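BUG: 3D viewer hangs when loading the predicted structure for this chain

Environment: internal workstation, default settings.
Expected: structure renders.
Actual: progress bar stalls at 90%.

Input used:
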Amino acid sequence: MITKLKFASIPTRDQDSAVRFWTEKVGFRVTTDQPMGPGKRWIELGIPGAETAIVLFTPDGHEDRIGTFFNGSFACDDVDYTYKQMSEKGVSFEGPPEKQPWGTFAKFKDEDGNLFVLSSR
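Structure tokens produced before the viewer hung:
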């Protein structure tokens, strides 16, 4: 039986730039960085306190996914606080956090233009 989601992939043009963004600005950590075909690496990032990892890898033929909407959401305990911390580190948000009946959310972009949702649990 399936027990968890092991990783989700984020398509990227420049893996080195993506590693800097996700580690220095968002606070993830590199858990795996190894060759994965000509000119590419398999890079897994650990999210503090989570079992699911993020992978910075774009399979051949999927380059058109770079700069699109990530169909998922990063959860945090306090969107306002996390928004402030990430903004101070240079992360670009579409706007300030918005409160909804189901919780609070904000949308941010990585350096490849991929769009992500940050939301309360």
